[in-house]
Amino acid sequence: MELGIKGKKALVCASSKGLGFGCAEALAEAGVELVMNARGAEALEAAAADLRARFGVAIETVVADVATPEGQAAVLRAAEGADILVTNAGGPPPGLWSDWDREDFIKALDANMLAPIALMKALLPGMMDKGWGRVVNITSQSVKAPIAVLGLSNSARAGLTGYVAGTARQVAGSGVTINNLLPGIHATDRAVSLDTGVATQQGISLEEAKANRCATIPAGRYGTAQEFGATCAFLCSQHAGFIVGQNILLDGGAVNATL
Ligand code: NAD
């Protein structure tokens, strides 16, 4: 399907690896010019070089921590005039409800709630002036179904979801859509780190931890960054202009709910 976004410009945060890279890859395939970001230069430059070589699109890279005001300023300088924004950052660490203090919550809020809000506030006006824009926030399945050990993630992402629910409806009349993509488990470094934590805690191997998790997913496997990216690119396409303020779950059926 022709997505109709060739020549648009996108900022894709936290995109050297994992789900962010999957989104950058699918947008590059659709002919979108990219600003890619990550904290580490080496993986970021390698990812950008790979996409330039395969899809021939212009890509600027910004090494920065998007959870900080300085990092946000740096990516926004490169992303001036962006038509598409994909927000993303690493997820907070797991733990027990009684472990977390104020500083832990502030870190989680900075990365997974306040950073996407700051980027939207900066880029939405330009999109609204042009009468066209797309925002996709990478959140988590934990918005629909809490993951107890990820209480910091449950909390911060719920805050972002509430902000998007109202804001998406305020900007939709200007041709700008905001939606959230909610990943269930996907085969990325994050999944390896979560499974390693489970394996250590339960005294089992990493393979066993992964097999146990697969057994809870109707699809019987982990999602891929490519599948995730394709959904993101569709939400950013010309075809998705009537999808507003939605929370779209990509979880292989793991959340057992009718709606
Ligand atoms: P990942 O850890 O595999 O990928 C991390 C990428 O983000 C890397 O490119 C890294 O450099 C970059 N990054 C991390 N923090 C950053 C920051 N502060 N500033 C700039 N770049 C940063 O993660 P992933 O699996 O791709 O997950 C992406 C998001 O989706 C995370 O918030 C994660 O918690 C969430 N999520 C993932 C899964 C999953 O199964 N993979 C499930 C639910 C939610």
Task: Give the SSE layout.
Layout: E1 9-12, H1 18-29, E2 33-38, H2 41-55, E3 59-63, H3 69-78, E4 84-87, H4 102-130, E5 133-138, H5 151-171, E6 176-183, H6 189-202, H7 206-214, H8 225-235, E7 247-250
Parallel strand pairs: 1-2, 1-4, 2-3, 4-5, 5-6, 6-7
Helix pairs in contact: 1-2, 1-8, 4-5, 6-7
Bound molecules: nicotinamide-adenine-dinucleotide.
Residues 14, 16-20, 37-40, 65-67, 88-91, 111, 138, 140-141, 183, 185-186, 188-191 line the site of nicotinamide-adenine-dinucleotide (NAD).
Task: Provide key terms for this protein.
Rossmann fold; seven-stranded parallel sheet; alpha/beta; single chain; 259 residues; binds nicotinamide-adenine-dinucleotide; 8 helices
How would you portray this structure in words?
This protein has 259 residues and is an alpha/beta fold. The chain has helices spanning 18-29, 41-55, 69-78, 102-130, 151-171, 189-202, 206-214, 225-235, and strands spanning 9-12, 33-38, 59-63, 84-87, 133-138, 176-183, 247-250. It has a 7-stranded parallel β-sheet with strand order 3-2-1-4-5-6-7, sandwiched between helices. Strand 4, helix 4 (102-130) and strand 5 form a beta-alpha-beta unit. 42% of the residues are buried. Nicotinamide-adenine-dinucleotide is lined by residues 14, 16-20, 37-40, 65-67, 88-91, 111, 138, 140-141, 183, 185-186, 188-191.
CATH class of the largest domain: Alpha Beta
Overall mean confidence score, pLDDT: 97
- How big a fraction of the residues is strand? 5-15%
How is the biggest beta sheet arranged?
7 strands, parallel
